[in-house]
């Protein structure tokens, strides 16, 4: 069993580009032995069988070009042995093959103008790096589309919250409860779907009382009264001194009561 030699064929996919992709090519013997087959590996991402055929037609007529499932390698079948030998000779010299892209086609695949065909769609298919760029753009459609998706999600979320709120109110109404909703303005009571709903009044008064208590507490303690650590230490020390002073006063008062014999222990 002999091992076929593998050659590297340089490919410049865009005319004038400094980047060169290297393809691995070697002889390929088919089982039926019809035609001269060539194995090609290292094809650019997004390459099609039409592109593979056009790449090697410069060496001779190509009767068939087939890609493997991963589409990174394939088989090129020349109409004669001369085409395969020409491609291997070109690769053995280290020369670079330039590909200018698919040949322009008339609409309809070469027919009359105005007829639609598949040629234009294949010609616009991205290959190589453009495949990754197209996938990146498809995954990130833009701020406008993203904003529209966020708005739709928020609308659906608000509707779901409103539905749950109505279900809770209906459940409480069945049990005889009065639903109190916090709102501004005077006290109002209404019936919604058999549920008694009270807005304003007690709810707003409770909120105002809580706000007034919080404001009074802030005014009493003073602004940033306990912000620094030394302020907290001084406050605790003053409280301790005051407690000791009260204790001494109580002890003196007790001694005076004992001295006047007016003290009657329980």
Automatic annotation (TrEMBL):
Biased composition (Acidic residues): 112-121
GO cellular component: CURI complex; UTP-C complex
PROSITE patterns cross-referenced by the UniProt entry: RRM
Domain of life where this protein originates: Eukaryota
InterPro entries (alphabetical): Nucleotide-bd_a/b_plait_sf, RBD_domain_sf, RRM_dom, RRP7, RRP7_C
Coiled-coil ranges per UniProt: 233-260
Similarity comment: Belongs to the RRP7 family.
Protein name (record): RRM domain-containing protein
The organism of origin for this protein: Edaphochlamys debaryana
Higher taxonomy: Eukaryota, Viridiplantae, Chlorophyta, core chlorophytes, Chlorophyceae
